[in-house]
Every structure is written in C-alpha cells, then in structure tokens.
Design brief:
59% helix, mainly alpha, elongated, binds zinc ion, 2 strands, two-stranded antiparallel sheet, 151 residues
C-alpha cells in the first residue's frame, strides 16, 4: 500500500474503484445489452446485472456440492454403497415425498432450502443414483447392496 496518509489512501481507493466500476460497467453493458428491455430504468438495469452476477457466483453445481457435503457429514459418499463419485450422488428423501418436493420448489431452491435447514439425517440422506432409484422404484427398504451384506 503506497499511501500511509488515510486521506490519500481513501482518495486512491476511490479513484481505483471508480476506474474499476467504469471499466466493468462498460463490459457488462455490452454483454447484457441484448437482454434489456428499453423501458427499464437505469436503476432496474443495474439491479438486473447484480442479480445475474450473484446467481452465477453460486452456481448450481457448487450449491449441490455444499448440500451433499452437509448431508453426508463431510464424507461425500453414498450412505448405502459408499460410492464417492460426486456426479453420481443425489439427495434422497428418506421418508419419500421427493415428487411433491419437486413440485413445490425448483431444484436450486430446494438445494438452498436444504442448506438452511438444520441437519436432519432422518429426513434427507446422500445416496448414489443406483441406490436412490432402487429405493424409489421398488419401495423396498433394503437396497441390493445391503442384501448382499446380509447373506
Ligand atoms: Zn450407492
Ligand atoms: Zn445401495
């Protein structure tokens, strides 16, 4: 930091961020221009840009990862078979009701909701697609993985 004097430092920061804002605003204006409704006010336009940026910051996949981490207690594995390939993992509704849930909330809102909830593993758990589909379609509690163990 080149400025020890707080006033100078403030001025430096102000100029720096003003330049930054100007450069980025130009860029943003270009890339978002085509989505604009001409009737929107400048304030509305700025709001829209901000919302898009915030949305892309927390991409769906990152959100899902956070939820999976939470509901697998940081292990990121299928509770049934131990599958650890992230792309295969899903959130399972332990007591069913997944279809209703999907009607009520969009996928991204559901993930946000799960992140905000206190951790309750009797409601939701992490399963891989195989184990999850089996639970759903066959309505059996014991996945073939578990059956093998019992034999
Ligand atoms: Zn599994
Ligand atoms: Zn299984």
């Amino acid at each position: 930091m080149p400025y020890k004097d707080p006033e100078k430092r403030k001025a430096y920061h102000k100029k720096y961020s003003a330049d930054w804002n100007k450069n980025n605003r130009d860029k943003l204006n270009k890339s978002y221009k085509k989505y604009y409704d001409n009737s929107m006010s400048d304030e509305q336009k700025q709001k829209k840009i901000k919302a898009s940026l915030e949305y892309s910051k927390l991409k769906f996949i990152e959100l899902k990862r956070l939820v999976l981490l939470k509901y697998s207690e940081d292990r990121l594995v299928c509770k049934c078979c131990g599958e650890s390939i992230y792309e295969f993992l899903t959130i399972d509704h332990v007591k069913g009701g997944g279809n209703q849930e999907r009607k009520k909330r969009s996928a991204i809102n559901f993930l946000k909701y799960l992140l905000q909830q206190p951790l309750d593993l009797t409601k939701y758990q992490v399963l891989c697609y195989n184990c999850n589909c089996f639970n759903k379609n066959k309505k059996e509690i014991i996945c073939p993985h578990k059956r093998k163990e019992l034999q």
